[in-house]
């Protein structure tokens, strides 16, 4: 009877292409947002100019005077808003900096009033308008102050959110690089002790059985070459994983001779199912360690795979001598390394289950398929 815990893996994809696509998507999104904001501000300026012209016209002035007044004042406000927005693009005020921002808004509003007071009476030579303009200076100042202040508030919110998104992206990139570095380090730790054991076995075979030593060197070379080509970020079909695993088993069979046997069985559908690369090798290595190191009898390592309810179910079993070995859950770097890899890739701690029953040590993995 099988006992298992599920390993739930997301849909795989090419990470490098995804990163490039995500970068271009973010860039296009930011450009699209900026374009929408620009058109919105342009529409607001037109509405503002039209409303101001309508109000001045309501006081009994001609449309020409109303339009020139509103146009000049709107242009000055646009320039002031551009200055405050451009400044906030490179300088974000702190908690105490908002007082300075208010002062800047007031100063820019006052500058707009000063320029208007100097230019408009000369452009519009009308005594009634000049008197009206002088009487409305205070109102114009506060209206301009509110308009520039609103622009400053919008700019602060927009650039703060933009900076936050950039910080989050940098943090995510740093975490991804750290995760990939640790995954690479874990992959490198899987090989040294196996490589040392293989070299020792080759050394022992050179004098007595040189043909087998030569064969083992070729097998070891093929195994390492295949290992270097694999990428933790890319899934592999089970059939490819089993081919690579067979190279490892052939090397181990040279070491242990007839004492090691492996039975690999899988149904017709499981060969095309995907799983993280090099997932089975450390588990099988762990099975060989506990199955052969403390016994002199023949040992059969059983590796089974089947598709059940859209899941790829993998089970590795090995016998053990209860009198000399007492398997413990998660024993050895092989299993702990696999668990750590799965956690780094999928943020799950409950992805591997091991148990011992009737002198059989079992590791079960259940991989859902997209």
Question: Can you put this structure into words, describing what you see?
Answer:
The chain has 2 domains: 170 residues, no CATH class; 178 residues, 2-Layer Sandwich (Heat Shock Protein 90), CATH 3.30.565. Helix 2 packs parallel to helix 5 and helix 7 packs antiparallel against helix 8. The N terminus is likely disordered. With 370 residues, it is α+β, with helices and mostly antiparallel strands. The protein has 10 helices and 7 strands. The longest helix has 53 residues. The chain has a 5-stranded mixed sheet, covered by helices on one side.
Domains counted in the coordinates: how many?
2
Helix content: 55-70%
CA-CA gap between termini: 26 Å
Counted by DSSP, the helix tally is 10
Strand order of the largest sheet: 2-4-5-7-6
Largest sheet: 5 strands, mixed
Write down the CATH class of the largest domain: Alpha Beta
Radius of gyration: 37 Å
- CATH architectural designation of the largest domain: 2-Layer Sandwich
Shape annotation: rod-shaped
Uncertain runs are: 1-16, 327-331
Q: What is the number of beta strands? A: 7
Overall pLDDT metric: 79
Question: CATH topology of the largest domain, what is it called?
Answer: Heat Shock Protein 90
């Amino acid at each position: 009877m099988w006992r298992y815990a599920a390993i739930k893996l997301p849909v795989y994809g090419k990470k490098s292409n995804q990163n490039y696509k995500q970068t271009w998507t973010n860039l296009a999104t930011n450009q699209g947002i900026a374009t929408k904001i620009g058109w919105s501000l342009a529409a607001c300026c037109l509405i503002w100019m039209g409303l101001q012209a309508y109000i001045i016209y309501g006081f009994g002035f001609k449309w020409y005077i109303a339009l020139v007044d509103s146009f000049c004042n709107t242009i000055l406000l646009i320039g002031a808003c551009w200055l405050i927005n451009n400044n906030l693009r490179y300088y974000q005020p702190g908690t105490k900096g908002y007082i300075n921002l208010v002062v800047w808004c007031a100063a820019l509003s006052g500058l707009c009033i000063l320029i208007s007071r100097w230019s408009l009476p000369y452009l519009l030579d009308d005594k009634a308008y000049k008197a009206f303009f002088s009487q409305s200076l205070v109102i114009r100042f506060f209206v301009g102050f509110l308009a520039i202040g609103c622009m400053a508030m919008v700019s602060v919110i927009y650039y703060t959110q933009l900076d936050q998104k950039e910080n989050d992206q940098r943090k995510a990139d740093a975490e991804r690089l750290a995760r990939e570095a640790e995954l690479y380090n874990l992959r490198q730790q899987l090989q040294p002790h196996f490589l040392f054991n293989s070299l020792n076995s080759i050394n022992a075979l050179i004098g007595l059985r040189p043909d087998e030593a030569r064969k083992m060197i070729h097998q070891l070379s093929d195994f390492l070459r295949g290992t270097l080509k694999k990428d933790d970020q890319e899934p592999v079909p089970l059939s490819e994983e089993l081919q690579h695993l067979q190279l490892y088993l052939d090397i181990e069979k040279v070491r242990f001779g007839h004492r090691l046997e492996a039975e690999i069985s899988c149904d017709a559908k499981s060969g095309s199912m995907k799983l993280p690369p090099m997932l089975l090798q450390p588990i099988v290595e762990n099975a060989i360690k506990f199955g052969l190191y403390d016994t002199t009898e023949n040992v059969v390592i059983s590796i089974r795979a089947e598709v059940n309810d859209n899941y790829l179910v993998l089970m590795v079993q090995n016998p053990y001598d209860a009198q000399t070995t007492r398997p413990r859950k998660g024993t050895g770097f092989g299993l702990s390394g696999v668990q750590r890899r799965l956690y780094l890739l999928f943020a799950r701690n409950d992805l591997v289950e091991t148990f011992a029953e009737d002198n059989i040590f079992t590791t079960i993995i259940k991989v859902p398929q997209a």
